[in-house]
User: Fold these one by one.
Assistant:
Number 1:
Amino acid sequence: MEYLSYILKFIYRIRWWLLIVPIFLTILAIYSTKNLGRTYNASTTIYTGVISGYTVEATSGARIDLVQQNTTLDNILNIVTSESTLKKVSLRLYAQNMIHGDLYHDNSYIQASTYQALLNITPQEVRRLIDKKDEKKTIARLLAYEKPNSKNFVFGLFHWFHPDYSYTAFINKIKVNRIGKSDMIEITYSSGDPGIAYNTLKILNEEFTAQYQELRFGETNDVIKFYEEELAKLARKLRISEDSLTVYNVEKKIINYEEQTKQITVLNSDFYLKYEGFLLDYNSAKVSVNELEKRIQNHIITLKNNSLFISKLQDISDITTKIAGLETLNNENLSSKELETLNSYKKQLKKTESDFTTFSETYSNQKASKEGISNDEVVSTWLEELIKLEKAKAQLKVMEERKGILDEQYAYYSPIGSVIKRKERNINFTEQNYMSMLNSLNAARLRQKNLQMTSATLRVMNPPIYPIIAEATKRRPIVMAVFFGSILLIIGFFLIIELLDRTLRDKLRAERLTDTKVISAFPGNEILRFRNFAKIRNQIAVKYLSNSILSYFNSDQKRIVNLLSVEAGDGKSFIGQQLEEYWTSLGLKVKRLTWHQDFSKDAKNFLLAQSVGEFYPDSLEADILIMEYPAITECILSTGLLREASLNIVVTRANRAWKFADQFLLNKVKQLAGTEVPVVILLNKAEREVVESFTGLLPPANKLKQLLYKYSQFGLTASE
């Protein structure tokens, strides 16, 4: 409770600072903010369709990538506040305001006062670029005029700190937020001009949508163009390769190389089978003929010398050759005409063989009748084997011819196959590249279509509305902040001083700084209107001090009160005189001795004295002895003098700073006095409130003073 009272007294002590300074600063803030600009807010809501919108990829079974969706939404938010987007907005807004601005009338584009300020900062050469009838032409001129130079007005308009057209202003005023977890965004903008606030958002919606589409489509358009160019190159290369293969097939008369070579392989296989068969027949017939000729050698020699026999045998060989030529390789693929010819040859062969046999038999019979040679089955068998031999010879002859043809075909088709495979491999490689490019092109077009669909969903749900009511200004919060801030600043300032200040001033501070009990306080010099109450106040203060001192006297002790001070001029003599007068008025025998009148501080008997009687023998005859000693800085009392007294009072001014040296000397006195004789402090020249904390309310005491004192003592519900 004592500390709470201390805090209240601290606030009461600085009451005039807390009243005058905050009121002055508040009045100054009110005056300074009388022309505080008003703010107009505009907002717009845009549906992006990134998350919930319909896409081609969603219908194709592709997995929904939430990370990509959130990234796309973040890109949209960043595009809104990107420097390139805001620069276009700044240029269009400036051109629009310069075209439609009016010096005397406000309009939906810009207020007259704002236009006047804008016109004042615009150079004449830039004004001449403004075409009042064509906004696009004006923007084109401004872009042509713009140069990256700090002195270029158009360039600096965006890069300086203009409140309506600079990049810094846009970044500070444009707020882009995602609405909850949806794929809608809200853009808000504030400006001192309602037309600028409205048109900034209107232009921003157009520019950032165009910027978004340009960025989204630019990459896919480049990719699609690349794929289309590569696809055209591959298509030309593929067409040239295919045409080259066609020309080569025509030149080499190739319809189906695989089938053609397969047929040749089949013919070659059949050829060798038939050749082996014919060769076997030939060898078999030859062996048989040779064996039979040995048996009928003479007869055979005669017969072989017969020209008709040779002629018929040649006919059989010729016809057999023709038949073998037709049957050898084309047995399954003969035409009807060839079949008819083959059948005719076979009939001729049959007839020729029959004629040959008849002739041979007739000739053999005639020869045998003339020469007596028997006609048996040997001749008949020999003729049959001879016919077989001739047929085998004819067939082998044909097979030899066919072998040459097959060898030519092998030699012809072998290089063709490798060339065709090389050309087909080249065509296949080109075709694979073509299909790969075609798939990539289709994927890019699908991506482009998806981007078109997502960009198409980027639409303004709530367009900006022209603000007609300004937002409440911050004048009241500013004034309140100045008022309460100044109060806190003053309290903080004086609190720091309070913590750092080593002025004794009151009981709590004195006890905290000196670590010594404060026994009482005496009032200081009062202001002029309270001078008449100084005597009665001193009487009240000395009465309280007297009662406090008397409580320390014991019957078995000498009643000695030592008045000490750390420095000279702290008021020991005044306190001693007041005590002496008060106790004398009560009928007590009081003796007051002072160092500058009754004894010398430099005398030997005083410096070595352990008792007052040693340097002033008559001092012990009084009821109470008041000893006023010199300042401790000038002379330290002996242990005997300090311990002989009933109470050692250190008198010090309340308005003085308590130095560390003072504390050292006080501790020295307390050490010499010991624990039996207390050492206390008396605050002299204290403020009225400090004295009242000991004595109670001092005069004059009007109703207000009484009320304040009651509440300062926390008599909140006291009736008196």
Note: Strands lie at 40-47, 175-178, 184-191, 459-462, 518-523, 560-564, 590-594, 624-628, 647-653, 679-686.
Number 2:
Amino acid sequence: METGLHPDDFHIREHPILTASDGETLEFFWSGEELTARQGEMISSALFANGIRIFGHHPKDDSPQGIFCANGQCSQCMVIADGYPVKSCMEIIQPGMRVEPVESLPALPAVEDAPSFHDTEEMEVECLIIGGGPAGLSAAIELGRAGVETLVVDDKHKLGGKLVLQTHKFFGSMADCYAGMRGIEIGEVLEEEAARLDTVTCWINTNAVAVFSDRKVGLVRDGRHYVLVQPKTMLVAAGAREKSLIFRGNTLPGVYGAGAFQTLVNRDLVRAAEKLFIVGGGNVGLIAGYHALQAGIQVVGLVEALPKCGGYKVHKDKLVRFGVPIYTSHTIVSANGDETVESVTIAGIGPDWKAIPGTEQSFECDTVLIAVGLDPVDEFYHKAVDFGMEVFAAGDAREIAEASAAMFSGKIKGREIARTLGRDVEETPDDWLATEQVLKSKPGMTYDEEIPEKEEGIFPLFHCSEEIPCNPCISVCPIHAVTVGDDIRNTPRFIGDEIGETCTGCAQCVTICPGLAVTMVDYRKDPENPIVTIAHEFTKESVKKGDLVTVLDTVGAVLGTCVVEKVRPGAIAVPGLPDVPGDEEPESGKKKPKKSNTFKILVKAPREIAKQIAGLQVQEENVTEPMDLYVERLTDDTIVCRCERVSAGEIREMIRAGSRDINEIKVATRSGMGACGSKTCSGLIMQLFAEEGIDLEEITGNVDRPFFVEIPIGVFCGTEE
């Protein structure tokens, strides 16, 4: 799209958690025009930073193409780079690179001489781990400690998996999964710990592409070098891929998954949107909305089909407090626009899960973020089982859960694999298994918030009223006056009066809370106008001493306005939090306070509202107002197979004609024959069968390709070039 903006206008300059730095730049060419990029950026991020959202047009129907997964799982973002078709989200921009949009079927470069070939490199290893995220790294650490020769492969340019994208603080147990630390910090801790183990080798930029019947695994390093690995055991910890949705305009540039959005914003510091609308009220969607606000992106609203958001209530409460409306029992009707998203239309849904006529509303936005669940990347595991390999699965590849559970899952599997390989290690303790189940548990009961009657001294207030696994607040209290009882899923209580201890006012519980759900009220100086301490994770300049701020309660209701008395930086100093690589201990040998990037905002509030205050309003109401008239997308361009542009109507026609075999539908329509290998559309086709009232037991599933990820034939054959 033509923006008229300077290339750097879409780079994030200030961020409350991440360090935004200009860094070194380079020049590259897009359609012959010279543009600027940051060193180390992916092509897709460089294009986004220059205001370019359309990467080409599909040869079948000329529909605009743009980024979708940003995870190498599809080919929506394909471009021609120096003459070769590449996934722009996986290819680093190079100085002078000439990048062209894909406007037709790419022509292969001319080959003047017959290629020469080399033998395929082969190697053996005791354990191969596919995936260098929280599960894979945790397993590798456990295996390395047991002396097992371990190879970890990951397709990204940095280890950590989704931890690299997670700037929020983690829930769970501080002792078991670094609760209270941010995902980006945990990723660095795990990576450094694995690097210290002599028997652990990590290959980044390495795709696992196939599992063969001779029990060898094909790997492609740096997109150029093919290696066959024969492991004695294998752990699949490849994570998950995002589900998609069927609605009009669902393939417009500007409609993409939460992972793609977080990759652009949190990894590459590119402002991927101006106005964002979210579909899906699980933790992924709720957290992505929070990340958007931190990056200065307006969040217009969020729809959830269920009557209640499935994610943690504290995540939902944060968004509501910051001014984001959440529409439960609603669904998206269409994404609207010609070449890119210009607006979104939503509607309420009835008991039959269909949109209720007359409830439609449209909202101006340029991005629709889809966060409707995850599917495990488990094809490697199932193929290895078919071929009789000694194979295990951990993390999301085994069961979709939080990253804290993935870490513990990997740790358990690492111990199990070490024993399988004959290492003299203890059996997995029962309490490990119990902890894993706790960390995987879904939210439990929700209670009415209890406001204590006490109005003297100083004490914390806990605005979290849902049972979730989380205990950082009890771990940091220096007087041990916060408790959740014998189960970390219980809601916390302050028991200072019960045990004869007085709150010190350190506010570490306020600073460390992953849900920003703890405040502190201080009546000591002025009982009629106590000081309330509120956690704040936006830029330091966003709130200053003397500002008049709007304060809200837990569910986002406006309580009034208060004057900011002080703004203090947050810091945590407890033995339970490891240092991030690069931190240094002071000469005294004592553990230094850990900078948290969570500011403490102290406001003077009237006594009547002080204990109800849970946060500050960040976003103005006018951002979230619907358009005067809802926008109806007249074009029925509902696409199921993005790669081959196969519509829902084409597939429904075959189902109604009696087809019950996805492979038959593939032959007739080409659905599932695209570059992504049916990773996106297979689940959507099954959804269409269900909507047509077909028993899914009758359906013959898709036959998997031998290769799970595309590989250039020259690389597979071992050409020298």
Note: The first strand starts at residue 25 and ends at 30.
Number 3:
Amino acid sequence: MIEGRPIPMSSVSNSVYDVCLQEALVRSQEWVPRWLAGLSQNLRSNEVTAVNAQDKHTYHTARKALESFGDLIAARFIETLAQSLPSHDGGPQGATMQRPMSLDRLSLDDLELMDDDQVHEKVEQGRVLQIVKMAVDEELVAFNSLLCGAQGQAIVRADANPLRPEVIVQTLMRALETLHVDPAIRSSWLHGGAVVLGQEIQQLYRDLSAWLSRQGVQPAGYVVTQTAMTKSVSSRAAGAPRRAPSAPQGEQGLLTLDHLHRLLVGNLDEKDNPATGTGHAGAGAEMVNSLAAEVVTLMLRNITEDVRLLPKVRAMLGSLKPTLLRMARDEPRFFADRQNPARRLLETITERGLAFTSEQDEGFSDYAKLVRQSVKVLQQEGPDLASRLEQQLMRLGQVASPTRTPARGIAVQTLVKVEQRNLLAQRVATEIEARNDFARAPGVVRRFLTGPWSQVVAQARLEASATGLDMPGDAPAMRYMAILPDLLWSSQLALASRNRPRLVKLIPQLLRTLREGLASIDYPQAQAETFFQALMGLHEAAYKAQQPLTESEPSRFEPDEDDAWLRPAEAKDTGFIDDLGVVPTQPAFENTQPLQRDWHDIQQENAGRSRLPLEVGTWVDLWRDEGALRCQLTWASPHGTMFLFNSADGRSVSLTQRGLIHTLESGRLRVVAQHGMVDDALDAVARQAWINSLKA
């Protein structure tokens, strides 16, 4: 136990999960000192067996520094680990932790922004994490299952484990960064302590798994996901490469993370390769050209082995390899420059290629013909490669893009108006709900007013504001709100039955205004008549002084702000999906149906994402009655309530935010590519360079 250092976590907990995390912190006061002792022993052993005087001195210095900082390392390690664990409100207990490192999250853009020390640290983290994961693999499977079970989850989610190896290793790195010691000493600690750290974490998982079992926790299950293929398109995770990156044979030790970083920032010179070079800048230029060629080879290999593209497209891209290698010789960093014509050409070909799932798809033959012609032109020898790239880039722009069709322009304009009206309708509904006489009205009337009628008022107000003139007293927007006192009064038996003459007098004008308003938004006749029958039943009961018909719906009504109303013409112009059974096509005043899944679970699964469920530019397969439709998310409304997809043949499909989430959850919308394929391929190159560094 560490004296004088209270664990910064609440001692009050009501769940097995919370108690388990506290138990982990208590046990850390035992295993962290054991790890430090094992590290010290390893350093001493390495010092004794070292044959090189410099190595012997390095191990000796690292061991002496460990003796001085050991207690501080333990205290900060445990304290930082406690800060990384979730508190009872779901947030971090202390300082906000960075996302745990992972090979899946390293990108070329991230690498370009790092300095040399950060690159070195990334490699050190990767090596330690690799050793730890190998040690704890079997125990981690069991612990993840039990810990997810303690959280009430039926299915294992590895990222729901706040004690996973990535978090612990990153915690250690953060603790060591707070010490003012030489980086070489920290490196010696990490190298000498990685195996012991893996053994201690392995035992921690065993102990915590046994503890959870004694508490009666039932383990969550693992789901084996089979990769479904639709027209040769994998339905795996968004934007994930369909094949693990691999380096060319014989070159796996050449491209390291450090070399790739220095290639990106232009920091490679002759000291990196003592061999005599023959280029205009000597050995440094030779090294740069070799690394650039390897990056291009790896990048193109990842693209041409990605089954999201049709085989014919991949074959044509493979034919560009000599051209791209020549470009790498002249401009070694072209792949990192998003404005370079060679990279833009690759992005254009791959992005347009994602639009097709079959060579029989409309527009594919024209697309393939243009690409084939461009490849043929670029394969020619000559000094004017840069200008030919620009020319072919312009030619490929002739391919019809989902973002350039006239139908899309109309759909965007329509959805902007739809969102504006729906947001205004929500404010109108709030305004109506605030009335003193609203709560006493029957549920069917309340749902009508906060649903269809709020849309009617919103439409009228938008039309009035478009004129730029003050609204007269008889303007529709004024009249549609003016009938509220009569409508609410007449629907209440206790009030209306006391003044039958007033009831008889107001009904004709009330019904005319209601019908006029619903007609202004093209509200479906069948749904309108359903409401009028219910309203007339209330009026008849009040006139005859009888009890109203018993309603089966709950008396309390809360409108769903995610529902959106589209007029029939608007739904047609935007391809609004109303046949998936997840989104109502009109504001409903019938009973609300509950979600099939708890909304809190959906929010948790979307944690860490942007405000939008998908990013604009994402390619998806959308399943409908006629089969899968390949389309691209080309537009999201300013407030993120409406989404527009377009297919290669110009068709538009729109969804509300709730509809989009439901189609994702139900598997009827599957992401094909959330990022550009060139970005994915280059990120895979960065990860391969990291792997090469770990092997070095």
Note: The radius of gyration is 33 Å.
